[in-house]
Design a protein that fits this description.
single chain, 122 residues, alpha+beta, 4 helices, 4 strands, 32% helix
């Protein structure tokens, strides 16, 4: 598995620039996280077009992520498109492959910023 080592902001920008997916694995130090990580690693070929991050539960980065995507269970795997829409939250290692296969291969492009109307100074 090729885990992205940059910041969350850099990962989001990379996903937007490449019109791809963001995969975020939230984990702790319990055995269930290790089992889930092993399953993800075994299925690494499914994540080849994803920017993938690992976040340790309770860290500042994880807290920043949870502002936008609530963390309901640990471990969990979030799949987010370039527009910021969470397409799946996977908490069962046995469902990773089937859920990922249902996600379209062409993510929804990030919405283009809407231009502001010109401001009249008269």
């Amino acid at each position: 598995m090729d885990w992205y080592s940059g910041s969350i902001q850099e990962a989001v920008q990379r996903v937007r620039d490449n019109n791809s997916f963001l995969c975020v694995f939230v984990k702790d130090d319990k055995d269930s996280s290790k089992v889930m990580l092993d399953a993800i690693t075994h299925l690494a070929h499914l994540f080849s077009d994803y920017t993938s991050l690992q976040l340790d539960y309770g860290t500042a980065s994880c807290q920043q992520f949870s502002v936008y995507y609530p963390i309901l269970v640990v471990p969990s795997l979030y799949v987010i498109n370039g527009g910021g829409v969470c397409l799946a939250v996977i908490a069962d290692k046995d469902k990773i492959e089937s859920i990922l296969s249902d996600i379209p291969k062409n993510p929804t492009p990030a919405p283009a910023p809407t231009p502001s109307p010109p401001v009249s100074t008269q």
